[in-house]
Amino acid sequence: MAPGPGGRMGGHFLTEEEMKEKPKVTPDLLKRIFGYLKPYWKQLLLVLCAILVSSILTLLPSILTGKIVDEGLIGRNLPALIRYIILSLAVTLGANLIGVLENYLNSWIAQHITYDMRNQMYRHLQKMSQRFFTSSNQGDIITRMTSDIDGVRQIITNTFTSIISNVLTLIVALTAMYQKNWILATIGIVIVPLFAIPTRSAGKKRWSLTNESQECNDEINGILNETLSVSGQLLVKLFGKEEQEYQRYEAVNRRMIDLNIREQMAGRWFRVIISTFSSIGPMLLYLVGGILMMKYDADLTVGDITVLVALLGRMYGPVNQLLNIQVDWIRSMALFSRLFAYYDMPVEIENPAHPVMPAECVDGHAAGHVEFKQVDFWYEPDRQILRDVNFELKPGHSVAIVGPSGSGKSTLINLIPRLYDVTGGSVCFDGTDVRELDLTWLRKNIGVVSQETYLFNGTIRDNLLYAKEDATEEEMLEACRKANILDFIEKQENGLDTIVGNRGLKLSGGEKQRISIARVLLKDPALLIFDEATSALDSISEAKIQEAIDPLIESRTSILIAHRLSTILAADEILVISGGTIAEHGKHADLVGRGGVYTELYETQFKVRAIEEGNFDPQWDLLLEGTSNPVEEHMQAIREDLNAVPPVGRKDGGEYRRKHRGDEAGRP
Length: 668
Description:
By secondary structure, the protein is of the alpha/beta class. The chain folds into 4 domains: 1-6 and 22-181 and 321-348, Up-down Bundle (ABC transporter transmembrane region fold); 182-299, ABC transporter transmembrane region fold (Up-down Bundle), CATH 1.20.1560; 370-591, P-loop containing nucleotide triphosphate hydrolases (Rossmann fold, 3-Layer(aba) Sandwich); 592-668, no CATH class. Helix content is 62%, strand content 9%. It has helices at residues 16-20, 27-35, 41-74, 78-127, 130-135, 138-180, 182-227, 230-238, 242-296, 302-323, 325-343, 409-414, 439-444, 460-465, 473-482, 486-491, 509-523, 539-555, 565-569, 588-591, 597-613, 619-622, 632-642, 653-659; strands at 370-380, 383-393, 398-402, 424-429, 432-433, 446-449, 527-531, 557-561, 573-578, 581-586. A 6-stranded mixed beta sheet has the order 6-7-8-3-9-10. A 4-stranded antiparallel beta sheet has the order 2-1-4-5, with no helix packed on it. Helix 6 (138-180) runs antiparallel to helix 7. Mean pLDDT is 78; it is low at 1-10, 628-639 and 641-668.
């Protein structure tokens, strides 16, 4: 069975789920649907005319059959016989040609409507906030954009034209039949539903069996995917479940065979019923027509009866399809309701109707001044992420944000480019609330290097030009040099035209991250945000990247989220986020001795890594005297072993570290 709009198994019957979730058809819904047809009303009018003419021409050969029989065969008039046969062929050809025109116009309208809907949906989804994409199922979003909108095309090309064509065919056929003989025409009207009812009953039974068979097939595929995959078969072997899994597969396979046999037999009985009822109608017309012609109506001819039988046969298909119109109608309305539900989702982050230019902006160039004023934020009302956050970051200064996992660090920086909007307070950029600024201008002046690197499937050049379309070769190479990826690019055969693969899979994590950094540097924003930007890099690459980032931090506003002490120390100020609030702020030397959140983070996260990197200053521990120190014994053991570690910035830290590694010092 052909899949129906919005459904896997379509068919001519509704599932229980479809029956429960039938959409409520309202005038507003219908008005909205026909609103998509309105721009193409001229083409629709041509389609209606083509359907009408095609319906008439399609039935004319059946009507001409009476002339062929009466005047040509019974009348023994060869010229008339030839004339009507040629006319019948010409009419058939004309109907087919008009049918081609109808199909073209129909497809043209359907494709343009789906073109409009896809553009509308894509534009709408682009406006949705980050909240929508983090909470929605990605597969569901893609389904709306592809199969659901494609279902609209099927509705227009199949359901819509089918309804009109079938109705017109029935009207023309009934009109022609009543012109011939009202008694036989009435008998035909009574016979057609008697034919359609058993057809529908048999079809419903087979449809039910097909659904069961499909579900059983899904279960079989599930077993095969689970037990014959690399991981699945290993698990089966390790737990000795081979026989149990075989029994499970054998039982489902047997049920599948039984269902297939029942489905085939249901189809056989279905064909028997169709064949029988298809014969009853014509035979009854021949019988009644013969009685009328012989005893009561001398004007009724053999040709007339032949025409009536032919027209009756042409009515079976349209009547059967119109009896199923309720199913197609409900599915069509459900499909439109699903699409409209997406269209009607509110846009949380909207560009202001009258955006303003920041007061601190000079000739359109942002300074990068950031200020948080009593900022609150939550994803759900009962789960607040940030509360009463206040801080100011002046142009040219930098701030490092640290805190436990889940404390709200990334959420905080997402508020600046308006990936989310605050639920309380305000975030200002260059002295103006970000909600009053033009979104494009705001995001153009903010560069973010995120922890999760994303590269488009193309070349390195394509990914760099995404930041600045008119960038010169020299600008791209300079950005790559600063990001410490130029040496790698120059070693590639195609240089900047090297293919990175889907999501950059042809590159290592460090290479992807450095290209990502180069892309942001090429953008040259007023505000730089590094959200664990060096997390995918090894120590050597990170050190070189840090050397490139340091001058940038000194010359423009920068925000750094990091777990490495060397990165944090480069900032002018450290903000400590805990429980959604700024628990502490200040310099490292001030914070490390307070015995607060930062002290704990220093002991558990930063200190060990600093020692491993050769960036640890023993003088820092003097600040810890008298504060809580849960890992002091462990750290003291490391200090005693290393004795003295090069201070921050010492270039021979790596060599010193190698000389004094624990395994070389006799430690296990």
